[in-house]
Each structure stands twice: as structure tokens, then as C-alpha cells.
Amino acid sequence: MDEFRHPPYRDNEGSRFYRAGRLSPEETWQALGNELARVLMDAQRVFWRGRLEMNPERVRWWHGAIFARHFPYDGGRFRLERVYFGVVTADDGMRQIEGSSPDTLRRDLAEVCVSFNGSAERLAKRNASVLEQTRVAGALYAGILRVHPFADGNHRTGFVALSAELWSLGLPAVEFAQDADMTDHDDAVAPVLFSPDGDIEPFARLLATRIERAGRPAT
């Protein structure tokens, strides 16, 4: 499928993958970008207008597919330590949020997947609007970020899941490549990351607006 190009993902210069000693920052960015593009291509081929059934093993496999070649000690491995990640607040501050504990992250990730599968099944039974569809896709992405199952690379892995779900619905994936795109992304996704009951609506609307602006891909 080549109705639209694969969406790039901007690298996070603070990640330990970016700072890897045996590769320069530029080489690391290029290597991970190439692996992510390959995984996205596979996901588009497999899930284009097909059913996406999520489970923790699929999430783990995607992470491994992106990272294992260059970072074998991290790729595809659920973390064993506590982790905190930063979320931008409305006043341009930063709030630190703790991911799921290592003891519960598999269970928490499974709950995210079960919730998504049920919502996706209900979507398939009716003619849902783009906004209804992006609520479901966005909740999967945010759920992966909130659990934060890996020591690093959670955004890339969540991005594959988000893209795969949009493709399964016959929608174009959404780009977050430029600084302004990432600002919009951070502002919109923050409310749903603050708690499991957070507001998905801003992120769902951002996705829907960009999809409708791009237009549905040709069939």
C-alpha cells in the first residue's frame, strides 16, 4: 500500500537510545528511524483494512522489532525497574508521572489491550464517525504511554500501535514530525495521561482534524 507516505517520528534527544555510546546521535537517530519505518511498513501491509487484535505480546514484539537489532539488551524486554516520564502541563511546566509498577505492568497493559479490542469490535458493528474512531485509536496509544512498559522507546512503540489501528480503519496515519506538530501532540495527549480516567477528547479531536484535513486515502 502506498496511498500515503509513512509518518516520521521525531527522535527524543534525551533517550538513552539516542545517547548510545557505540553510535553517534546522528547514527542512532538514523538507525532507529530506519527500523521504525520498516515496522510501520509491515504494520500497514498486515493491518490495512483488517482487524487489529491487541495483546501485550504484540506490543512487546513491535518494541523488539524496532530496537533489538541495535539494542539487544533492551529491545522487546519489559522493564524491571520503576520509571517516571514527563508530561507538559497547560502552563508550559512539566509534571512527572510514574508508569505502572514492574509487578503490574503486564496486567495493566493487558487491560489496555482488552479495552481497546472491545471498543474496536463495537466500532466495526456500525458506521462510526472519524472522531469516534480516533477516540478508540487514541485511547490505545495513551494507554501504552501511561503504562510505559519499556525502559525507553514507549512513544515509538505506541506510535506503531496508533498507526496500525488507523490503517485498520482505512484512515491515514497522522504525522508528528515537526516541532509545532509535537507541541500540538503534547498539549492534546497530556490530559489523558494524568490518570486512567483522563480526557481523551483533545487528542481524539487532534487526530480527527488532521485526518479530515488530509482526506481519506483512495480505495
Report on this model:
This protein has a single domain, classed as Fido-like domain (Fic-like fold), CATH 1.10.3290.10. Strands 1-2 form a two-stranded antiparallel sheet. The protein starts with 24 loop residues before the first helix and ends in a 5-residue tail after the last helix. It is built from 7 helices and 2 strands. The chain is globular. The N terminus is likely disordered.
Question: TL;DR?
Answer:
This protein is mainly alpha-helical and 219 residues long. It is built from seven helices and two strands. Helix 2 (56-67) packs across helix 5 and helix 6 packs antiparallel against helix 7 (201-214).
Instruction: Classify the beta-strand content into a percent band.
Output: under 5%
The residue fraction in helices comes out at: 40-55%
Overall mean pLDDT score?
A: 87
Q: Please name the CATH architecture.
A: Orthogonal Bundle
Outline: globular
Instruction: List the secondary-structure elements in sequence, H or E.
Output: HHEEHHHHH
Structural class designation:
mainly alpha
CATH-defined superfamily: Fido-like domain
Q: Low-confidence segments, ≥5 residues, pLDDT <50?
A: 1-14
Major sheet summary line: 2 strands, antiparallel
In spatial order, strands of the major sheet run 1-2
Reading off the top of the CATH hierarchy, the class is best stated as: Mainly Alpha
Please compute the radius of gyration using only Cα atoms.
16 Å
Head-to-tail CA distance between termini: 10 Å
* CATH fold-level name: Fic-like fold
Supply the number of helical segments.
7
Number of domains: 1
Assembly annotation: single chain
Total beta strand runs: 2
